[in-house]
Amino acid sequence: MIELSAGGWILACVCGLVVGMSKCGLPGLGSLAVPIMASVLPAKTATGALLPVLIAGDMAGAAYFKRHANWRLLFKLLPIAVAGIWLGYILLGQSWMNDLAIRYTTAVIVLVLVVMNMFKGALHAFVAGSDGSAWKMWTMVVFFGLLAGVTTMLANAAGPVALVYLLAMRLPKDEFIGTNAWFFVILNWIKVPFMVARDMITGDSLLFNLKLLPALLVGCLLGIVFSKRMSNQRFKLYVEILTVIAALLLFFPPGAVTGFFRQLFQ
User: Fold this and answer.
1) Which of 57, 66, 142, 191 registers the highest number of CB atoms within 10 A of its CB?
2) Do residues 23 and 60 touch, judged by C-beta distance below 8 A?
3) If we measure between CA atoms, which residue out of 7, 23, 6 comes closest to residue 219?
4) Is the pLDDT of residue 266 over 60?
5) What whole-number distance in Å separates Cα of residue 65 and Cα of residue 11?
6) Quick check: 105 pLDDT over 70?
7) Residue 17 contacts residue 215 (beta carbons within 8 Å)
8) What's the predicted TM-score (pTM) here?
9) What is the average per-residue pLDDT within 77-90?
10) Mean pLDDT calculated for residue range 79-104
């Protein structure tokens, strides 16, 4: 059984709230769910416990923004991301890939992406240049697709990867949210049998997920309300800021993150 202190349950519910808001209108916020859950549970346990919550949020977001997904972009990215999931599954079976290795590997990847995000204009120009070179587009697709697959399998941390790629594509707000939602609803369902095989999703973890469902639903409603009030410009700025915050949180040890969030509720 997954047993938590009162403070731990508060953080877990905050995580459910954050996931709901991220999947239904505020995608950058979802990056915070990984360090919050990792501050409550060991890294591998946290990854398995978070996945069903993410899937429930994905389905709500995909249903609400179903008309806005860019399927042409998704059909290019998804097969490469699935290959990345398989690579991540192999890495999880290695003896050296412990909780600490997962946490800091993910943190380094996110930090690199934060730096890359500063050059998203150059990334867009690289893909959408006037010469229309197909190799440039496929270089981006392979790089971000593989990275998304590996990081989502290791720690459910592909959010910043997808956000940097979609920001570089300069999609309108609703299309950005819809494409992001459908990308992860498909990707996360594919991950389920792999995580069951690694004993990261169990009967106990699913009972834990059910307890977070009310917080998730409240988050979904809040995400829809807030997203309607944001312009495209403010939306992109907001996504960039939260991606940076998520990267920094991943570098702190779990105890420090837990202590920080607990101080907020005292």
Assistant:
1) 57
2) yes
3) 23
4) no
5) 28
6) yes
7) yes
8) 0.75
9) 92
10) 84
Distance CA 59, CA 61 (A): 5
pLDDT-derived band at 85 (thresholds 50, 70, 90) equals very high
Show Cβ contacts of residue 40 under 8 Å, excluding neighbours closer than 6 positions: 4, 8, 11, 12, 15, 46, 258
Query: What is the SS3 assignment for 128?
Result: coil
DSSP 8-state class, residue 118? T
Q: Helices 173-197 and 232-250 sit at what angle, rounded to 10 degrees?
A: 30
- Give me the half-sphere count of Cα atoms (radius 13 Å) on the Cβ side of residue 241: 7
Task: Average the pLDDT over 52-58 and give the result.
Answer: 90
Q: How far apart are CA 22 and CA 188, in angstroms?
A: 15
pLDDT higher than 60, residue 262: no
* Per-residue b or e along 83-93, where b marks 16 or more CB atoms closer than 10 Å to that residue's CB: ebbeebbebbe
Closest-CA residue to 14 (of 29, 27, 28, 26): 29
12: left (phi over 0), alpha (psi -120 to 50) or beta: alpha
